[in-house]
Structure formats: structure tokens, C-alpha cells
């Protein structure tokens, strides 16, 4: 099969999986669970997210190592994806007062979703040449944001007016729609994207071996400095990804609390962010292949610092929309270029293991510190100073990133980049 076709089917999984992230995590289930199921106990939603992230952070490195040893990334991805789809569909049964059921289903589904990303990302180095990692990663994220817009449009057409007697029935039905969307568009990857043809000699003791390998790799990266560029990049990624997650989590709170924006204005704001994210992931992916992912990430982090300054200084709704446009460009490009840089730094035959640290341990655990800092600073002073504090994460990540040494890429025609 031609690489372009395989790449398309690989990116289609990004298109599919955003149905879970946008409907369950961001827009519908989070509000339904917090406001309706628990009766306004928002902290239970935060607890559910934190528990699922901690579990994923702990599981991802050894699971990645196991997948590398067994060469069964697709099988692991299929298991995690199936668990997520099943639990998402079962959320239809979560009604008012079903707090434990709602929490358990979400935690299992989110562990499956976040854990599966480790194996999905590990396919990247095997479906394209190193010189094209940036644009291919960008294609994936662009397809993801396109999928988010598509499923949001479907749900918008599905839902009746909010004062309808059967409104919450259709809310619950939207979870089933998200599960079906994820299922349908993830199938091509499992059918048409093959595993690398590498045979492993290990047949027994996969779990023990996988755990031991992840422990040894952690020591090699952070204590023995066997992979200094990987350790520096992971630290930089931890800091600026923490800031990105925090901004996403508090954007609507900032908009409604300080700027007094209506729900309609906030929805339009997120449409702008999603739309520009598609453009940013696509364009900066191509730029990354010309100037390198490290330089491209540095540019996006500078844009993020401008976003922080704009949110702090400008108090108008129009200014916030402009800030949202820039943030959208930066979200897609920061994430896609980070994935391509990690693929470039990762040793061959250990992609899933290293992506376990990238997506799991560092990607998921970075969802803790930033929100905590934001909440404390906002409580002591106000949300504008909290935004400014998050800017320090971007700045620190940018500085550490400059110490990452990126290997040179030699293309098929012998030209070194």
C-alpha cells in the first residue's frame, strides 16, 4: 500500500477519536455529569479526570515497553479503543444520581482513550520518512480538529431545544453517537495500517519484562543521561503542555467570569479556536519539515507568550476573540510538532516505550500542576494574574527546549537537513 494511503488511514483515527474528547471531556458529558448527575458537585468531575490521568500516567510507560517487545501495538490500540467505545456507549445509562456509575465509566473510558494514544502515536515513525514527520503529524492533528467540528455539528442537529421534556434523553443519546463515530472512523487503521515487520525473540514474561524495561529506560533517560536530548525535551514538554492544558481548562471560566461573555459568545469562541487549530496544525506541520520541529515549537511558544500578554492586558471581548484565534494556531501546531520531535528523538524499535513516557507519564501528569497554580493565584489575587503565572510555564519550557540537540535528517536524495 502506498504511504499516502496509509497516512490517510492513520490520520482518520485522529478524526475518529476526537468524538470522545470533544463530546465527553470538553462539551457535553462533563457539563451533564457535573450539573445534572451530581447536582452541581463539580469537584467530582475534577476527581474523575485526575484519577484517570494518574492511572494512565502510571500504565503508559510499561505498556509501551510491552508493546515494543511483543510488536503488538495494533492489538493494544484495539483493546484500549474498544474499551473506550464500549464505556462511552454505556454512558447512555448514566442518569441523575448515578454518580458512581458515571465516574467509573468515565475513568475507564478515559484511561482507554489516553492510553491508546501511546500506541497510536508510536505508528508515526513507521508510516513516513523522518523528513516528513512534521507535516504528517500535522495532518493527524488537523484531521482531529476537523473531526471535532464534524461531530459537534451532528450533535447540534440532534439536540432539541433545551426546554424540551426529552432534552436529557437526547443528551444521553449523544454519548452513543460519539461512540459510533469513534468506532466507524477508527476501523480503517486496524484494517489497512500494518505493524512494522519486526520479529521479537521474547515470548514469555511480557508484563515483567515490560515493567523492567520501562524502569531501566527511565533510569537511562533521567539518571544515566543516556538520552540527554530526550530528557530535556520531555521536561520542556511537561512545562509548556501543562500551560496549554490549563488554558484549555480555564478558558470558558475566564471568559464568563471576567469578560461576562454569554454561552453563545463562548461557543463561537471555541468554534474559532477549533477552526484555526486545523489551519495551524496543517501549516506549521509543513513549516516544521523545512525549519525543523524544534524551531517551529519555539515559534509557537512565542505566540503563546503573546496570547498570555493579550489575555492579561486586553479586557475587551473582541480582544479575547483575537487571542482565541492566536491560541488556536498555537494549540494545533505545538502539539503536532511536539509529536514529530519526539518521533525524531526516539530510538528505533523503542517507539511505543518512549511514547509511553511522552504521552503517558509526562503528557498526562502535566495536567496537575498548572491548574493548581492557576487556582491558587486566582484565589489569592485574580484570574488575570493567574494567566500571567501560567506564562512562566511557557517561558521555562521555551528556555529548556533550546538545549535540546536534534539529530540531522538525511533525505532519500542524500541532502542533509
Shape field: globular
- SSE order, one letter for each helix or strand: HHHHHHHHHHHHHHH
> What is the CA–CA distance across the termini?
27 Å
CATH superfamily: MFS general substrate transporter like domains
- What is the level-2 CATH architecture name? Up-down Bundle
Count the strands? Answer: 0
Runs with pLDDT <50, length 5+?
410-417
Find the structural class using helix and strand composition.
mainly alpha
Average pLDDT, all residues: 80
User: Taking Cα atoms only, what radius of gyration do you get, to the nearest Å?
Assistant: 21 Å
Would you kindly provide a written description of the structure presented here, covering whatever features stand out?
There is one protein chain. The chain is mostly helical and about 425 residues long. The chain has a single domain (about 5-190, about 215-400), classed as MFS general substrate transporter like domains (Growth Hormone, Chain: A, Up-down Bundle). About 80% of the residues lie in helices and about 0% in strands. The chain has helices at about 5-25, 30-35, 40-70, 75-90, 100-120, 125, 135-160, 165-190, 205-220, 230-255, 265-290, 295-315, 315-345, 350-380, 385-400. Helix 4 (about 75-90) packs antiparallel against helix 8 (about 165-190). The two termini are about 25 Å apart.
Short description:
With 417 residues, the protein is mainly α.
Give me some keywords for this one.
single chain; about 425 residues; mainly alpha; Growth Hormone, Chain: A; 15 helices; about 80% helix; globular; disordered C terminus
Amino acid at each position: 500500500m502506498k504511504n499516502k494511503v496509509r497516512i490517510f488511514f492513520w490520520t482518520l483515527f485522529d478524526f475518529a477519536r476526537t468524538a470522545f474528547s470533544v463530546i465527553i471531556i470538553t462539551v457535553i458529558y462533563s457539563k451533564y455529569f457535573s450539573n445534572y448527575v451530581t447536582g452541581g458537585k463539580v469537584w467530582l468531575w475534577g476527581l474523575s479526570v485526575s484519577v484517570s490521568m494518574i492511572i494512565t500516567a502510571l500504565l503508559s510507560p510499561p505498556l509501551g515497553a510491552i508493546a515494543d517487545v511483543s510488536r503488538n501495538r495494533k492489538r493494544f490500540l484495539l483493546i484500549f479503543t474498544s474499551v473506550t467505545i464500549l464505556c462511552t456507549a454505556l454512558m447512555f445509562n448514566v442518569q441523575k444520581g448515578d454518580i458512581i456509575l458515571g465516574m467509573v465509566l468515565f475513568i475507564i473510558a478515559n484511561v482507554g482513550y489516553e492510553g491508546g494514544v501511546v500506541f497510536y502515536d508510536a505508528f508515526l515513525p513507521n508510516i513516513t520518512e523522518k523528513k516528513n514527520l512534521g507535516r504528517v503529524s500535522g495532518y493527524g492533528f488537523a484531521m482531529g480538529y476537523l473531526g471535532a467540528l464534524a461531530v459537534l455539528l451532528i450533535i447540534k442537529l440532534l439536540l432539541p431545544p433545551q426546554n424540551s421534556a426529552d432534552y436529557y434523553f437526547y443528551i444521553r443519546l449523544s454519548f452513543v453517537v460519539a461512540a459510533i463515530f469513534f468506532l466507524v472512523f477508527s476501523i480503517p487503521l486496524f484494517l489497512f495500517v500494518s505493524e512494522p515487520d519486526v520479529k521479537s525473540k521474547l515470548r514469555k514474561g511480557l508484563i515483567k519484562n515490560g515493567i523492567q524495561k520501562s524502569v531501566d529506560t527511565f533510569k537511562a533517560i533521567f539518571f544515566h543521561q543516556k538520552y540527554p536530548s530526550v530528557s530535556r525535551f520531555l521536561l520542556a514538554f511537561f512545562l509548556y503542555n501543562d500551560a496549554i492544558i490549563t488554558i484549555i481548562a480555564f478558558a470558558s471560566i475566564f471568559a464568563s467570569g471576567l469578560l461576562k461573555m454569554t454561552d453563545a459568545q463562548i461557543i463561537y469562541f471555541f468554534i474559532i479556536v477549533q477552526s484555526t487549530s486545523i489551519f495551524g496544525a496543517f501549516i506549521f506541520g509543513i513549516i516544521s519539515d523545512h525549519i525543523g520541529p524544534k524551531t517551529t515549537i519555539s515559534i509557537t511558544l512565542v505566540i503563546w507568550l503573546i496570547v498570555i500578554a493579550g489575555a492579561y492586558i486586553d479586557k475587551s471581548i473582541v480582544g479575547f476573540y483575537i487571542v482565541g484565534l492566536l491560541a488556536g494556531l498555537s494549540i494545533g501546531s505545538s502539539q503536532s510538532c511536539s509529536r514529530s520531535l519526539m518521533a525524531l528523538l526516539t530510538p528505533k524499535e523503542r517507539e511505543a516505550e518512549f511514547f509511553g513516557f511522552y504521552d503517558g507519564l509526562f503528557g498526562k501528569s502535566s495536567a496537575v500542576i498548572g491548574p493548581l497554580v492557576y487556582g491558587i493565584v486566582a484565589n489569592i489575587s485574580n484570574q488575570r494574574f493567574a494567566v500571567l503565572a501560567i506564562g512562566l510555564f511557557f517561558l521555562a519550557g521555551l528556555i529548556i527546549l533550546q538545549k535540546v540537540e536534534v539529530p540531522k535528517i538525511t533525505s532519500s536524495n542524500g541532502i542533509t537537513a
